[in-house]
Design brief:
Layout lengths: L1 H4 L2 H8 L3 H10 L12 H12 L5 H8 L3 H10 L11
């Protein structure tokens, strides 16, 4: 299943177990685990521009750059971007 998903966390969610457990079992079986793609400086600059200047949400920015919304939020937080308050759904 990991060969199809290429995501330890995705596989863990699918199996309803912790991602550390999935990772351990894969490593114990000699499976090479792909590292998540890191956001480049250009992508971070674009995410910042879209968030601040264009007022897009992290959920809107994520698919444009190929990352999850939580990855966008974490990256913006690391660079000191002041986050807007979340709107209740």
């Amino acid at each position: 299943m990991y060969g199809e998903m290429k995501s330890v966390k995705g596989l863990a969610r699918h199996l309803d177990i912790h991602h550390h457990t999935v990772r351990k079992h894969l490593l114990d079986r000699g499976v090479e685990i792909e590292q998540p793609r890191q956001m480049s400086e250009d992508e971070l600059a674009l995410a910042t521009h879209l968030y601040i200047d264009k007022q897009l949400t992290a959920a809107q920015i994520g698919p444009k750059l190929g990352f999850t919304a939580s990855t966008i939020v974490k990256a913006l937080n690391r660079t000191g971007v002041k986050m807007r308050q979340q709107v209740a759904r």
